[in-house]
Amino acid sequence: MAECEICGADAALVDVTVAPKTEVAHLCETCAGGIKGEAVPEGHWQALTTSMWSESDAVKVLSWRLLNRYKSEAWASDALEMLYLEPEVEDWAKAAGPEVIHRDSLGAVLSSGDTVVLIKDLPVKGGGFTAKRGTAVRGISLVPDNAGHIEGRVEGQRIVILTEFVKKR
């Protein structure tokens, strides 16, 4: 057993490669899953306020990316204001861009190609029809820069759908 480089948990560790470089961070299963968008316990990411000062550039990059993911929360915004990264480390952190994770109305992570079901009748602007509740939308596409939007085909038309109105099948 060793210590997770983000949360400090004494647990079995997973090596996580921090793209686009090949450096790794040694993380517990919870942190490694959280980076991929899996749910973590309430308050778990508060540990970022400590890990952001790590001597490992890979851990600093992960901390910066996660803080940006949660920057709408006061603690993360405050931490980002204090965090300083060397220019080359900051470029590395920004290279992959902040990870956008799409979730349905129940919090399930959506992936490109998934099938979702509409949970509400949705009037389609410019389409002249209403997409009915219960309609299955197969082979969705994720809007890369907006976690609240997906694209799919309904009644032969490609439309943008808000993730809050779908559930994963």
Short description:
The chain is an alpha+beta fold and 169 residues long.
Describe this structure in words.
The mean pLDDT is 90. The chain has helices at residues 29-35, 48-51, 57-69, 74-82, 87-95, and strands at residues 2-3, 10-11, 13-17, 24-28, 116-118, 122-124, 129-131, 136-137, 141-142, 149-154, 157-162, 166-168. The chain is 25% helix and 25% strand. Helix 3 (57-69) packs across helix 5 (87-95). The protein folds into 2 domains: 2-95, no CATH class; 116-168, Roll (SH3 type barrels), CATH 2.30.30. The N and C termini lie far apart (38 Å). A 3-stranded antiparallel sheet has the order 8-5-12, with no helix packed on it. The chain has a 3-stranded antiparallel sheet with strand order 9-10-11, with no helix packed on it. With 169 residues, the protein is an alpha+beta fold. The longest helix has 13 residues, at 57-69. It holds the Pfam family YjdM. InterPro entries: YjdM_C. This is PhnA protein. Residues 102-168 form the Protein YjdM C-terminal domain. It comes from Celeribacter baekdonensis B30.
